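Worked example 4.2. Below are the chains of a multi-component assembly; read each line carefully before continuing.
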Amino acid sequence: MNAMIEVKELTKQYNKAKVPAVDHIDFSVEKGEFFAFLGPNGAGKTTTISILTTTLSKTSGSVLIAGYDAEKEARRVREKVGIIFQEPSLDPQLSAEENIRFHACLYGMVSYRPTFRMMPAAYRNRVLELAEIVGIQDALFKPIKKLSGGMRRKLEIIRSLIHTPDVLFLDEPSSGLDAVSRRSLWEYIDASRRANGTTVFLTTHYIDEAELVDKVCIINKGKIGIAGPPEEMKENLLKRELVLDAEDRGKLISELSHMGLTPQIGKHLIVPTGSRSAQEIIAGIGSKLTVLNVTEPSLEDAYVEYLIQEGGVAA
Amino acid sequence: MSELILQRRESRVFRELNAVVTIAARDILLSFKSPGSLIMMMAMPIVMMGMLGGSLAQNMAGGLGFNFGQYMLTGMLVNMLFMVTVMGMTSLVEDHTTDFTQEMMISPVSRYSIVIGKILGSSFGAIVSMAGTLIVGLIMGITLNFGQLLMILVLSPLMCLSAGALAMIIIGSIKSSKMANIAVMIIVMPQMFLSGAIIPITQSSGILLVLNRMMPMTYCLDLVRAVVYAGTPEYDSVVLFNPILNCAAIIALTVGCLIIGTYFFARSERKK
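Applying the procedure described above to all two chains together yields the following structure tokens:
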């Protein structure tokens, strides 16, 4: 078995809550897999990630991380994971480097020394290298208070990767980041994942970030809705469409009807391709086309469609 | 990606000790980054020793049968260690507010290492206050010899650990700064008045006797006084218990408080 994360019948009901935040969910993530856990606000994403990273106790069910029980072998699990929390967890009174040093020492990577200069060369080189990669080398010795939100996020990424975790949990890591920062963040995480074979567990509100993952799992109202590769999810939930128009729209509609296709008439004609390929349909059209577009559904379209089908989102 | 990957140390003992040192060092570093708090710690003995103690010495110390100045100085030294360590432990609540507790809780170290590290970090301010107390004592003409000072310094980590462990029972599960400040008063004030820091307790009886026997500071104070008054005629009228009994009581109460406090602390972070 190669599962890095294995969740069975996991349930969490908070004290005084009437309904479970997470309700008998099952999923697994393979070693080296890039896994996205999507869902609207209040769906149970952060609750799940907190249980998986041992910071929250479960009500029932089982959670195995790298083969270790998250409840009974919590310390073993903590050795294997790194996390970027939804809310930044940096010490605002320390400098960026001091925050990294604190983390590296707490994880037993290096012996504590009171200054950066006194730290072992391997640590200093690693920190300087990571700072350069994510572009915060100029801010490394500045207090956290003086760093922008984007820089703080990048610092958290360095911190979470300094102990080379087997599983990296990212709880909405790019929230509050500008487009450029988001892109560089993802480039770095992807490079790190490929270099070290890190399993990545992502929750995000930016659905486009999940387009490149290996597997997507949608949670809503504490229950797992659907899971699978993004492509499969799009195939199942949405159909490809052709957007067409012609100088003689009537003739075009007639040609489509002959092929058994019923277009949706609006500004242009929207034609679900069904089981046919776009090329097959276009080959059967003799009218002179003025508009021709093949629309590829996005994961976000599939995600929204799923939530609509499920009757909306959790309150 | 570079090959510069740090390797985790194999020894569990090393990692736990390193974690304790790291957590303590952070709190000490924060003290230096906030000179105001260091000044306050140095100034506190002026109020406690100079004003409160001085007033008691002038107005209520007659007829005790021993030198109240030295009695009060030893009491205040231990009291400052306890008070400032307990106050320092409230930084756990601040860490919770800034979500920094998460960073510690997610690390692969024992919860005891986290708590002991926090206590040792808080002890730094307590040692600074102890130095302030000695300076105020010197100004008031109350001194200890080098041997006595050295013994107190040797015992001070044990006393800080005892104070921090006691604080954890209440502060470990508190999440608001306002509540933490109240908790400090609830922990510190009874210790100061009932354990014999400034008011002798040889005549205590009833519920007050029961309470002072339950307080770790009673035994810490008595141990320090046993060291300071050893070989003097006042020993029997000042010291309550055999030093071995004091040591045993301190260790038992500290370990008990540490286990209960750490349990509540870890539980409050995970059980919601």
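Take a moment to check your reading of the output against the notes. Residues 16-53+65-97+108-270 of chain B form one domain. The mean pLDDT of chain B is 88.
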